[in-house]
């Protein structure tokens, strides 16, 4: 898909990014995916995120697509001056380093806003202001503190979610704040500081369980030990691969019984209402589990397709490359900085009938240093002097 025919609602918005890992880069990736020009400032030699192993090896390629890379030595006066020039010409600045890190370099919102009143400065932090704000937080720290790990694992065994869900969701709240600040800037002409955080994002996500306690007076049980709101709402074993099925209304119960010829269960009129079925789970589930254990997953899917009954084969991340739904615009072609080709999820939106996403190449560290400086008005002699002094890095 050409970049000319994809949604670019943020075209003309210039973003400068001082970020690492996931939370901050996720903000920039969403903005870039919506058409903003995003310049990523990396240290000389490139961000360490590029070199993470294990579960971190996908961070850089996932969250830094669609950006330009400039390498600066922020410990040198010349490199720091370039960073200030970038911020002076930017609509948005994103950072997610430890509290005070950019302030000590003279890159605080207050100092930068003196030269650029329209600047929207987004800080992605572990905590919003309060007694914890100076602690170091990671996605896992927030999940453990905020109740999400407790709700995910079985009782007594807290378990973090299987992706960087708080980093990414915290980044999304940062994007929401930036977009709101851009709208307010239309009216006031002034930018502002926006702060999003890991811990408060986690609290927002577990808010439904807090509300459950407020409504019922009883603490929510961890999800593996919960009493579901529906009798059939679980993962079921089949002859081969497991499948999730939910029967979430009385109408769907009738359809479910007819579909799988559960005549005995349908004949029991005491099971016609949802709450009565929940109380009878111990009687219903053994029959249903035995039925599904005698069928293959594909046989069950063939019956459930287009019925309105919620179901889901249990997918793995590597299965998503060949998923027919994602093949309809949900993946974009990416050339990794190694030169390898792959496809990765694009921004999950449709706008005006079109999906974001176009072929992108991940930049090598500093690949755009000269071009970015030239676009800021630096002449060739100035650029080469900065490179020669080590203030600016190039491949």
Can you characterise this structure?
- This protein has 2 domains: 268 residues, Rossmann fold; 91 residues, formyl-coa transferase, domain 3 (2-Layer Sandwich), CATH 3.30.1540.10.
- The protein has 16 helices and 13 strands.
- The strands form 3 sheets. The chain has a 7-stranded mixed sheet, sandwiched between helices. It has a 3-stranded antiparallel sheet with strand order 7-8-9, with helices on one face. A 3-stranded mixed sheet has the order 11-10-12, with no helix packed on it.
- α5 packs across α8 and α7 crosses α8.
- The two termini are 29 Å apart.
What layout of secondary structure does this protein have?
Elements: E1 14-18, H1 23-33, E2 37-42, H2 59-63, E3 68-72, H3 77-88, E4 92-95, H4 109-115, E5 120-125, H5 139-146, H6 148-152, H7 165-188, E6 193-197, H8 198-205, H9 207-216, E7 233-236, E8 243-246, H10 250-259, H11 263-267, H12 274-279, H13 281-293, H14 297-304, E9 311-313, E10 331-335, E11 341-345, E12 360-361, H15 369-375, H16 380-388, E13 392-393
Parallel strand pairs: 1-2, 1-4, 2-3, 4-5, 5-6, 10-12
Antiparallel strand pairs: 3-13, 7-8, 8-9, 10-11
Helix pairs in contact: 1-7, 5-8, 7-8
In a nutshell, what does this entry contain?
By secondary structure, the chain is α/β, with parallel strands linked by helices. About 35% of the residues lie in helices and about 15% in strands.
């Amino acid at each position: 898909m050409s970049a000319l025919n994809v949604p670019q609602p943020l075209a003309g918005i210039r973003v400068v990014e001082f970020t690492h890992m996931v939370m901050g880069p996720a903000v920039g990736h969403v903005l870039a995916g919506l058409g903003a020009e995003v310049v990523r400032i990396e240290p000389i030699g490139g961000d360490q995120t590029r070199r993470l192993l294990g579960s971190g090896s996908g961070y850089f390629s996932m969250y830094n697509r669609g950006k330009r890379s400039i390498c600066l030595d922020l410990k040198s006066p010349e490199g720091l001056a370039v960073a200030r020039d970038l911020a002076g010409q930017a609509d948005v600045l994103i950072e997610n380093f430890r509290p005070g890190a950019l302030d000590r370099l003279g890159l605080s919102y207050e100092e930068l806003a003196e030269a650029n009143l329209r600047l929207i400065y987004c800080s992605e932090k572990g905590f919003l202001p309060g007694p914890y704000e100076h602690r170091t937080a990671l996605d896992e720290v927030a999940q453990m503190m905020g109740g999400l790990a407790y709700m995910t694992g079985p009782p007594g065994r807290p378990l973090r979610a299987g992706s960087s869900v708080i980093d990414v969701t915290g980044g999304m709240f940062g994007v929401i704040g930036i977009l709101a600040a851009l709208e307010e800037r239309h009216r006031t002409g002034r930018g502002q500081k926006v702060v999003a955080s890991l811990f408060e994002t986690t609290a927002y996500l577990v808010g439904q369980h807090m509300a459950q306690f407020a409504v019922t007076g009883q603490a929510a049980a961890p999800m593996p030990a919960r009493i579901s709101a529906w009798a059939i709402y679980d993962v079921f074993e089949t002859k081969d691969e497991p499948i999730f099925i939910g029967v979430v209304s009385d109408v769907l119960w009738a359809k479910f019984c007819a579909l799988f010829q559960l005549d005995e269960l349908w004949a029991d009129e005491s099971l016609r209402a949802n709450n009565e079925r929940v109380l009878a789970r111990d009687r219903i589930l053994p029959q249903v589990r035995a039925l599904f254990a005698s069928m293959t997953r594909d046989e069950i899917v063939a019956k459930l397709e287009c019925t309105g009954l919620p179901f889901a084969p249990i997918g793995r991340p590597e299965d998503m490359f060949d998923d027919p739904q994602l093949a309809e615009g949900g993946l974009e072609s990416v050339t990794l900085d190694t030169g390898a080709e792959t496809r990765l999820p694009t921004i999950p939106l449709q706008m005006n009938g079109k999906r974001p996403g176009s072929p992108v190449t991940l930049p090598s560290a500093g690949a755009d240093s000269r071009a970015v400086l030239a676009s800021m008005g630096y002449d060739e002699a100035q650029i080469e002097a900065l490179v020669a002094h080590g203030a600016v890095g190039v491949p």
